[in-house]
Amino acid sequence: MKSQIQVLPLFLLIAVGYSQPKLSFDLGLGLYQPTLTGYDENETFPIKNTLNRNLLFNWGVYYEFFYNARIGMSTLTSIDNEDAKNFKLGNQSSADFSRRITYRFFPIETFFRWRPRIEINFTLMPIWGRSTISLETNPPQQLDDWKSFLTMFSDKEIGLSEMNATDNMVSNWYGYGSMLGFRFYLTSRMALDLKSGFMNNTYDEKSWYLRGNKVTGPKMKIDGLPIFSLKILYGLR
Amino acid sequence: MFGQSTLEKQNPCSHPLIKLAKDNGIKSIPLKDILKYRKLVKECEKSGNSKAIEQIELMDWERDFKRSKAMSSWTSTHAMFVFVTVGYYYMAKILDIPYEVTFFP
Predict the structure, then answer these.
(1) Across residues A190-202, what is the average pLDDT?
(2) Which of A128, A183, A208, B92 is the most buried (most CB within 10 A)?
(3) pTM for the whole thing?
(4) A20 CB near a chain B CB, below 8 Å?
(5) Is B100 in Cβ contact with A188 (below 8 Å)?
(6) SS3 string of chain A?
(7) Complex-level ipTM
(8) How confident is the model at residue B100 (pLDDT cuts 50, 70, 90)?
């Protein structure tokens, strides 16, 4: 037993040293269906459609660190924009509005090849989620514009004294997810990857920050969501 | 030196990049040399050695397949855990039962 324990670090060293390291980069799209109540309840925000609500733009980098395992980072982003012509605030002012929800996955992916060109993979990932809302307001009424904007989510008074013409409010949260995937190798370096799974996010609408002040943001239900992704990847080495 | 480069021009199949791909796989070729490798492959095929190129590609597929056709060490436990969590989530969705497990109610 003792000798087995002594051999283990040596085996790990050899295994890591001899395995062929592979670095890959991927681009793709994700699909999910969140319930963004805070945006839906108010007509000021852009009307929801597949592009600004369900579609996620995805890029990622993976490194194969063990025979059948990779670690990496994958970012999925939902984007929504509206220009000042169509985005009117409660104080009769207007502003350029932009909203981003970014899910940063840090996956540990294990896999095996079922056929020479077909791979089945299993992903477990912690998530660092971040949402940003930015407004491009007209000086000198940027403070009034932001106060008017924030009343859409809460009636509470916020202790803000000054704002820039372009400012943003940010919320961070953590989560986790799990996915099953199917990969088809087009060449030995290039492949198509289809994944399906779920993610749980611990988002709280009361944890937004604007210039260091805690503010209330939009209600969003982004826990227990099924998620799909399709991407094309290229092995760099 | 001159003799070697003349030989490579005459026979692109004997170029070190082709040899590297043959011995260690296509993925062992540095990214900066990929275009050069593709050019060499075409030249090698034109010179009537398409069998050698086919062999390199076949060996590469075989090498990757052999290396990852079975899961090793802890990876199977990880895979099983993922399979169970995703399976449980979708089953709970379909049957409309709570999927969040409360350990300490």
Answers:
(1) 94
(2) A208
(3) 0.83
(4) yes
(5) no
(6) CHHHHHHHHHHHHHHHHHCCCEEEEEEEEEEECCECHHHHCCCCCCCCCHHHHHEEEEEEEEEEEECCEEEEEEEEEEEEEECCCCCECCCCCECEEEEEEEEEECCEEEEEEEECCEEEEEEEEEEEEEEEEEEECCCCCHHHHHHHHHCCCCCCCCCCCCCCCEEEEEEEEEEEEEEEEEEEECCCCEEEEEEEEEEEECCCCCCEEECCEEECCCCCECCCEEEEEEEEEEECC
(7) 0.80
(8) low
